[in-house]
Amino acid sequence: MRAALLLLVLPACTTNPEAPDPAASSLRDQLAHEAHLLVIPSDSTGAITARRKTSAGWAQQQVALTVTSGELVTTPGPADHLTLTALELGFAPVLIPSTVLGHEAQLTNLHLRLAGPTPVLPTWNGDDEAQASTPLDLALSWTLAIEGKQLPLGAPRLPALPVTLQLTGDGSVIHAELGIHARGELWSWAGVVKLSDLELGLRARTPPGDRVARDGRSGRGIAPRRADRKRRGPELRVRVRLAPGRC
Predict the structure, then answer these.
(1) Does residue 156 contact residue 137 with C-beta atoms inside 8 Å?
(2) 15-28 per-position pLDDT tens digit
(3) Number of folded domains in the chain?
């Protein structure tokens, strides 16, 4: 059952509501709003070098880092800048070989996150590709477990790490590749254990099915309607006609 109702509205002093932005047709359009990307663990890799001081010198070994989760959030900034408002990564426990610490050990609860919003100035190649390079202040948190005993190390202070970011898109999806290549010593524990030479290669994208059309008032994505959504109950359609006139 359907019913139609026609209303005639007399002239009144009103303000036109802000219309929603049209659907984005390029990466540049997409980045004019907040963009939320999820890291793809299966397409991301990482490694770091662990060293321990011994009577014979330094014993070292490269340790793989397995990315388990992550997100990247950008917002538009002033004067063609882009602001990285969030970057957060989670890692699987890292096994440190006994040749490094003398005992089998693990780094657990390993997280790397952006210390604060950071503006970057991208270089554009058309409207669907952008690149940027910038040092980022990243905070690392972890727990060291040796033979099952957890040792709280606190949050080590890292130097600003050089990061490269490449963004591509077509108005319907954003793809990102982020690389961190930090050479040299990053952290030292009592001068006997050191971590150095961090390598991270990350891939991220906007969630599948996330529409680019956005509400002009909130900047938040509009959820797609399901074609198979069932209608419930009678449908009432209301049409509003504005009569001409002046305030």
Answers:
(1) no
(2) 333 333 456 899 99
(3) 1
